[in-house]
Structure formats: structure tokens, C-alpha cells
């Protein structure tokens, strides 16, 4: 286990370094940030003065080195736009996004687990077909469209939920469902095929032969084995979920890190983008580490090997 | 199994714990909710270039002068009167008995400190360029200030509406960092809470020197998505939204919950024709081709049918609300025969083809549709365009500044809220400005003359000449002044502001 974690940590350093180089390069290709920082009627000297103040007149490798040497010490610099430390900006916006992705995850599980198991047990029945249809529809519906449709139905027509905002449990419902709905189909298909596979295994036949009741067989013996691929895939999907959060956050005016990142890319606010990209990369790697640990808990054989 | 159950329980507990309960203790009756598409970077208006900062600034701070929305003229605010003592000195008298939100009295030292702060290059404040003509500020007595300017500065009065007055004490005792998040103004509202990217909560300043706002609380919510803003408006969650797309006006007006209101705004739209040859040699360097382009297009019917009337035809680039606008200069009228003749005279009897740099309608509503209509009118006269589309207006601006635009491109100018012809003439139309693709010495001379005298009558004459000149020279393909569309809840009375600054203290409950 320890060797495994060490290896993961080394990988992490490589990943973060790669990402920081990529983000740095792409941002510099995008254009001149000073143009967006100053009013359009600013004169030439004003542009030059600003470029110098931000260090943009120095060679790229010097700029990169300066950034890396400070970032290692936890100093990502000040946002050019907001005049506050980039790290503070990003950290402040992190919790709403994490809550939202976890809520999305919970919604996905609540939909996917029962439906997936049912579909597997009643294979090729009308129920299974219905579940497949729902899965296809769920996968095909763009998050953006789904979000707006939910707002029209639940806020404008029925006046049941606030159309947007953050702070109360009512605010959570639509965004979480929206995000969860995107993840549920793949999870459901996975649960279904997992259950079908496991139910054909010898130990299930043994359990049935012992005379155990069918629910006990499914839940206690089969389900636990299905959990392993599901948890792994959910971990891998976490990055996707963060991507979906960008759209969900925008539609529902959710004050999260995903919208902050997109906005900072638009403003070419390099320090904030760098900081957000690196912290999000860390988060994704951390989630995958946790997933590995959970998988180990579910099936101790995996890490013992 | 037990482990799975524990995990599940932990997950549930986590979700339960992180769900914050932040219920605002205001009743709906004494609160207005205003939506913005994006948040400000700070609460220090001179340190921002965003319109949102100007708007928020107006509600919490005061300026030396403010625009009267009825007359469109600049009138007193924290300054009660001003006069030019000589060509480069202005004397300003201040209002007495005004207090900052922290209780300190407002006076001449605060005016000096506010201007000194923005003018000092070391402070890196982005608004510095707007006030750079001011050389120094002197305190004469507690309520009198003198400004020394670098030569005659006719925009001085206009620019008094563009800098908020901040407290000297706060600058000294709290400093720049603190001021980014904590506004201490003299304005009609005070900031109570700012949840970044989420909302601002303001409460009425009961010690305000001016008329008291009707609503006690203001919530300014950040809602990036336009469709969501409209949904909030028609479901009663928000009271005022701005920049409603023309095709969504019906949705709002038929909802029974809200209505739209429009106002001309200080932004003129045009197509730049590369007279200066910055994109390389091109047909528009010939005045006849530029005139032909103006004669080819039926702008009036585009405004009427494509924009649903949401535009005000202009003969030149000067907005009808700006000082110096001359209504006697008449816009071009469509005349295809004359356009073809001019093209033939210029050596293009079979027409010509030029590149056209286009962008998204982020600033200008209906841009894609109106440009399509213009393209088809131009083609009728023989000017065929080859479009190049750039997704965002930022990169388009980059290309233009770096002389990489096509001979024709979409452009509009918002005057930085200065209601004066100089604000477009000097910044975008004189030779060698970053965004100018027009260069005409005779015109430049007039612009310089116009900004070198304080005599308003003389200035008006100079600008009338300048407008005649650029009209006859067909400096651009002239389009129209834009109109803004606001969505307003039926529970309030509110008129769309000409300067695009939403003043929450001007909102009143709707009379039944």
C-alpha cells in the first residue's frame, strides 16, 4: 500500500508539472492580457507600462520559472484582475463546486443503483428496455438544455423552486439533478452488466443452493462485487463531473470554481487560471487515490496482491 | 456490508453538513433584486474597467458631479458648483454636511486624496488614463478645491462624473488592500455583505444627504446565464435585468409578471472601412468606394425590420446624446444606381470583393442578423464580402489593434460614458490610434482644436465641421446609435437609464 501511494505521489508531481506547462503555454498563445485589463482608449505607453508591471515583457522561460518557483511555495501570485491572491480566490470558490459534484454523485447513485439492479434482474423485459431508453435519453440530453428545461418547468410554471442561486437546500435540487442525470446512465449500464455477470458466477449458485432468499443473494453477495467497477468508474468520471459543473454552475448561477476558471480564461487572468488548473488537477488525483483506497476496503485482495 | 453502510452514512452526513443555511432576514416588500451577468473584481471602482463596477460604485459612492437623467446634463452632486478660473484651472465648491458611511465628514482633503490616488502611477489604478489631464489638486479650504490641468481640458466637467470620492482617512488607515473589499462611500446605500460571484447585499444609508431611496434593501445577484435571468424575472425572483436580447422581449411582456423598457444608450455602431490602408492596399482607400458602400445599404429599413426599431440612425459616428452632435448633417439614403456609378468611376465596373471581419453579438444586439442584411445590400451594388468570423470580441479587438483586421470590420464605441464627441473622435478616429483605420489630417486638426478650448459654442462649431467632413468623406459605413433593453418586474416603477448606470435609489414601488 505504501509503495502504491508513493508511486501515485510521484505521478502526481509529473501530472501537475505537465499541466502547468500546458496551461502556461496555451494562455500565452491566446493573446495579450493587458488588452483586456486596460480601457480600450488607453494609450501605447499605458500598455507598455502595464506589461512591464506584470512582467510580461520578460522572456517566457523567465516568466515560467518565476511562476514555478513561487508556486512551489504555495504562492500563485495575485490575480491581475481582482488584485487579490489567486490562491485565496480559488479556495473560496472550491466548496460550492465540491458540494455540487458530490450532490450530483449522490443523485447519480440514487438513480443508477436501483434501476441498474432491476434491469439486470428483469433482463430483456419491458422494464429493462425502459431503463435502456431512459439511459440513452439521459446521455443524449445536453446538460445545458436539461437545466433550462427544469427551470422553465419548476420555477417559471410551477413556482416550486428558485430558478437559480446558492445557499438553501432548495437551491441544490435542480443543479444536483442536472449534473447527476448526466452521470447516471453510464453508471446504470455498468451496474446492470456487473450484476448480470456476477449472478452467473459459481458463488452465487452456491448461495442460492444454500437456500438463501433472493434479496440476500443479490444485495449481500452480488452487489458488493458489482461495487468495484462502479466505484472505479465513478472516480474516473469525477473529472467529467467537474467539466459538467462548468455548465451547471453557469445555468444556475452557482458561485463555484468552474465558472471562476472559465471567466479567468476569458479575462486571461493567468495567475488564477494556473492556480485553479493545478488545484483541480490535485483534486482529481486525490479523488482517484481515495477511490483506490475504497476499492481496497471493499475487496482487500486488490492491494494485498 | 457494515462498511458500506458506514460509508453511505458518512456521505449523507457530509452532504447534510455542507448544505449551508443562509436565509436573508429581509422581507420581499422592502427589497429590490437586481441581476448582473458577471461580478466585479473589487469594490474599488477606480481600480476596475468593468461597467458593473461603475454601476455598483454609483449606488454606494458619490461623484463630484452626476448626470441628470431627465435633461441629460451634468449637474451637482458632492460638488455644488464649478467654474474655470483660467484656461487650465478649475475651482470646485463642495457640499457641506456630507458624511462617509463610517461617520467621518467629507471635505476637500478627500477630493484631493481620491484624485492623487488615481493619478499616482505607482498605484496601478486602471482609471488613471481617464484623469491624466489633471496635473495637480489643491485644497483651498475645507469645501473648495482647485484643479490644475495640462492645458485646456473641456472634458473636466464630464469626467467629474467618472471618479468616486473615497475617504482620505480610509486610504491612510486601512490602505489599498482593505479598500478592495470594503467600500466606504457617501452614497445612498451601504454594502452589508459581498459573497463573491454570488451576491451583494446593500442597505439604505439613512444619513444620506440626498433623497432617500424607497427600498430599504438591495440584493445584487450574479446570474451569468441570460436565459436564467429571464426565468428569474418572469418567476418573480429578480426585479431588474439588463441587456435583454430583442427576440426575448415578447417572453417578458407576455408573462404578466414583468415588462421591458428601452432607452437609447451612449454607444454608436458602425462598420470600419480601411481608409488608412492598415490591412494593406484595399479598395476603401478610394473615397468613391466608401461612399458607394454607404449608398448601397438601406440602414433605415434594417433598423425597422431587423432590429425591431431598437436603434437610432446616425449620420456619422457621433451619438445623438453626445455634446457636439449636429442634426443638420443628414444620413446617406440608399441609392443603388449612384453607388454602382461611383464604383465604376473608381475603376470597379464589375464590382469588387473585400474581406469582412465579423464577431459575436456580445456588445451589439442582433449583430449577426443586421450584418447579414448589410452584406446582402452591399452585394446588390457590387460590393461582395468574404466574411471571417472571430468567436469572441476580445480576439477581434486584438486583430484590429495589431493591424490584422480585414478592410471592413464590425465596430462600436461606448464613449466610456463621456457624453462628448471628443470621446469617439480622439480615441478611435484620429491617425495612429490603436483602433483607428481612418487617418485624415484635416479631421485631426479639428479634433485637436476642439479639445483645446473651453468655449462650448466654439467647440460645437468645430464638431459640426468635423461631422460634415467625415460624412462627406464616408469615413465609415455609418450605422446607428444602440438602444438598451431592460426587463423590469411589474411590482416596481423604473425607467431605463441613458447612461446604462442602474440607480437603485431611483426604483419605486409601482403605483396601483
Describe the fold and architecture.
The complex is a heterodimer of chains A (305) and B (512). In chain A, helix 5 packs parallel to helix 12 (270-298) and helix 11 runs antiparallel to helix 12 (270-298). Chain A contains 13 helices and no strands. Chain A starts with a helix and ends with a helix. Chain A has 305 residues and is mostly helical. Chain A is globular, with a radius of gyration of 24 Å. With 512 residues, chain B is an alpha+beta fold. In chain B, a hairpin with a 3-residue loop joins strand 8 and strand 9 (199-204). In chain B, helix 10 packs antiparallel against helix 12, helix 11 (299-306) packs antiparallel against helix 13 (367-381) and helix 15 packs antiparallel against helix 16. The termini of chain B are far apart. The chains are: A mainly alpha (305), B alpha+beta (512). Chains A and B meet through helix 2, helix 3, helix 5, helix 7 and helix 10 of A and helix 1, helix 4, helix 8, helix 14 and helix 15 of B.
Principal-axis shape of chain A equals globular
Oligomer: heterodimer
The overall strand count of chain A is 0
The class by helix and strand makeup of chain A works out as: mainly alpha
Task: Tell the overall outline of chain B.
Answer: globular
Percent range of helical residues of chain B: 25-40%
| Individual helix count of chain B | 17
Q: Please report the number of helical segments of chain A.
A: 13
User: In percent terms, what proportion of residues of chain A is strand?
Assistant: under 5%
Overall residue-averaged pLDDT value of chain A: 85
Biggest pleated-sheet summary of chain B = 7 strands, mixed
Q: Main β-sheet of chain A, in a few words?
A: none
Mean model confidence by pLDDT of chain B: 90
Order of helices and strands of chain A, N to C?
A: HHHHHHHHHHHHH
The radius of gyration computed from the alpha-carbon positions of chain A, rounded to a whole number of angstroms, is 24 Å
Q: Radius of gyration of chain B, rounded?
A: 26 Å
- Biggest chain pair contact, residues each? A-B, 61 and 58 residues
Number of strands of chain B: 19
Helix content of chain A: over 70%
Amino acid at each position: 500500500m505504501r509503495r502504491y501511494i508513493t508511486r501515485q505521489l510521484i505521478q502526481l508531481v509529473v501530472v501537475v508539472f505537465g499541466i502547468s506547462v500546458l496551461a502556461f503555454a496555451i494562455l500565452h498563445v491566446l493573446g495579450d492580457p493587458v488588452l483586456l485589463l486596460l480601457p480600450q482608449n488607453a494609450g501605447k505607453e499605458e500598455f507598455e507600462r502595464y506589461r512591464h508591471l506584470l512582467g510580461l515583457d520578460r522572456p517566457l522561460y523567465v516568466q515560467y520559472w518565476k511562476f514555478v518557483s513561487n508556486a512551489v511555495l504555495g504562492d500563485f501570485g495575485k490575480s491581475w484582475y481582482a488584485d487579490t491572491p489567486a490562491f485565496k480566490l480559488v479556495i473560496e470558490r472550491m466548496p460550492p463546486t465540491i458540494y455540487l459534484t458530490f450532490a450530483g454523485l449522490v443523485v447519480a447513485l440514487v438513480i443508477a443503483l436501483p434501476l441498474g439492479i432491476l434491469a439486470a434482474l428483469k433482463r430483456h423485459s419491458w422494464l429493462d428496455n425502459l431503463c435502456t431508453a431512459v439511459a440513452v435519453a439521459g446521455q443524449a440530453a445536453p446538460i445545458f438544455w436539461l437545466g433550462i428545461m427544469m427551470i422553465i418547468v419548476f420555477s417559471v410554471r410551477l413556482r416550486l423552486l428558485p430558478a437559480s442561486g446558492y445557499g438553501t437546500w432548495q437551491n441544490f435540487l435542480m443543479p444536483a439533478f442536472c449534473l447527476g442525470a448526466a452521470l447516471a446512465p453510464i453508471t446504470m449500464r455498468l451496474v446492470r452488466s456487473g450484476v448480470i455477470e456476477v449472478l452467473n458466477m459459481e458463488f452465487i449458485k452456491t448461495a442460492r443452493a444454500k437456500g438463501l432468499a433472493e434479496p440476500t443473494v443479490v444485495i449481500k453477495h452480488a452487489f458488493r462485487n458489482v461495487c468495484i467497477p462502479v466505484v472505479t468508474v465513478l472516480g474516473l468520471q469525477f473529472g467529467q463531473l467537474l467539466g459538467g459543473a462548468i455548465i451547471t454552475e453557469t445555468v444556475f448561477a452557482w458561485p463555484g470554481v468552474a465558472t471562476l476558471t472559465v471567466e479567468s480564461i476569458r479575462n486571461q487572468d493567468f495567475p488564477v487560471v494556473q492556480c485553479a488548473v493545478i488545484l483541480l488537477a490535485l483534486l482529481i488525483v486525490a479523488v482517484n487515490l481515495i477511490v483506490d483506497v475504497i476499492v481496497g476496503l471493499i475487496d482487500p485482495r486488490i492491494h494485498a496482491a | 456490508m457494515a462498511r458500506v453502510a458506514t460509508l453511505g452514512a458518512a456521505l449523507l452526513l457530509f452532504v447534510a453538513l455542507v448544505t449551508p443555511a443562509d436565509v436573508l432576514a429581509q422581507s420581499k416588500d422592502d427589497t429590490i433584486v437586481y441581476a448582473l451577468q458577471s461580478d466585479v473584481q473589487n469594490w474599488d471602482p477606480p481600480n476596475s474597467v468593468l461597467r458593473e463596477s461603475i454601476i455598483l460604485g454609483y449606488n454606494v459612492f458619490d461623484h463630484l458631479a452626476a448626470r441628470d437623467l431627465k435633461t441629460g446634463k451634468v449637474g451637482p452632486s458632492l460638488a455644488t458648483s464649478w467654474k474655470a478660473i483660467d484656461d487650465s484651472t478649475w475651482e470646485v465648491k463642495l457640499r457641506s454636511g456630507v458624511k462617509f458611511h463610517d461617520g467621518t465628514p467629507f471635505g476637500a482633503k478627500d477630493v484631493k486624496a481620491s484624485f492623487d490616488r488615481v493619478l499616482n502611477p505607482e498605484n496601478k489604478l486602471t482609471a488613471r488614463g481617464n484623469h491624466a489631464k489633471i496635473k495637480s489638486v489643491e485644497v483651498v479650504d475645507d469645501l473648495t478645491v482647485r484643479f490644475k490641468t495640462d492645458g485646456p481640458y473641456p472634458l473636466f466637467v464630464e469626467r467629474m462624473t467618472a471618479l468616486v470620492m473615497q475617504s482620505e482617512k480610509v486610504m491612510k488607515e486601512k490602505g489599498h488592500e482593505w479598500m478592495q473589499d470594503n467600500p466606504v462611500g457617501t452614497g445612498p446605500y451601504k454594502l452589508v455583505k459581498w459573497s463573491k460571484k454570488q451576491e451583494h447585499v446593500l442597505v439604505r444609508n439613512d444619513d444620506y444627504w440626498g433623497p432617500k431611496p424607497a427600498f430599504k434593501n438591495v440584493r445584487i445577484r450574479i446570474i451569468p446565464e441570460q436565459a436564467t435571468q429571464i426565468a428569474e424575472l418572469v418567476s418573480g425572483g429578480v426585479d431588474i435585468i439588463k441587456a435583454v436580447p430583442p427576440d426575448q422581449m415578447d417572453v417578458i411582456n407576455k408573462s404578466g409578471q414583468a415588462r421591458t423598457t428601452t432607452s437609447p444608450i451612449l454607444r454608436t455602431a458602425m462598420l470600419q472601412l480601411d481608409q488608412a490602408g492598415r490591412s494593406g492596399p484595399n479598395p476603401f482607400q478610394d473615397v468613391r468606394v466608401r461612399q458607394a458602400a454607404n449608398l448601397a445599404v438601406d440602414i433605415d429599413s434594417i433598423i425597422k425590420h431587423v432590429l425591431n426599431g431598437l436603434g437610432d440612425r446616425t449620420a456619422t459616428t457621433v451619438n445623438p446624446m453626445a455634446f457636439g452632435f449636429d442634426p443638420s448633417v443628414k444620413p446617406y439614403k440608399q441609392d443603388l444606381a449612384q453607388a454602382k456609378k461611383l464604383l465604376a468611376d473608381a475603376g470597379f465596373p464589375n464590382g469588387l470583393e473585400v474581406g469582412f471581419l465579423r464577431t459575436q453579438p456580445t456588445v451589439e444586439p442582433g449583430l449577426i442578423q443586421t450584418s447579414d442584411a448589410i452584406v446582402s445590400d452591399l452585394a446588390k451594388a457590387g460590393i461582395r464580402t468574404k466574411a471571417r468570423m472571430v468567436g469572441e470580441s476580445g480576439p477581434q479587438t486584438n486583430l484590429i489593434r495589431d493591424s490584422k483586421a480585414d478592410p471592413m470590420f464590425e465596430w462600436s464605441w461606448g464613449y466610456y460614458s463621456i457624453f462628448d464627441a471628443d470621446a469617439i473622435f480622439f480615441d478611435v478616429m484620429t491617425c495612429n490610434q490603436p483602433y483607428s483605420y481612418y487617418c485624415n489630417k484635416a479631421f485631426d486638426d479639428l479634433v485637436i482644436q476642439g479639445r483645446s478650448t473651453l468655449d462650448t459654442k466654439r467647440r460645437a462649431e468645430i464638431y459640426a465641421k468635423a461631422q460634415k467632413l467625415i460624412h462627406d468623406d464616408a469615413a465609415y459605413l455609418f450605422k446607428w446609435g444602440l438602444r438598451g433593453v431592460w426587463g423590469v418586474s411589474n411590482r416596481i416603477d423604473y425607467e431605463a437609464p441613458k447612461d446604462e448606470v442602474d440607480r437603485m435609489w431611483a426604483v419605486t414601488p409601482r403605483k396601483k
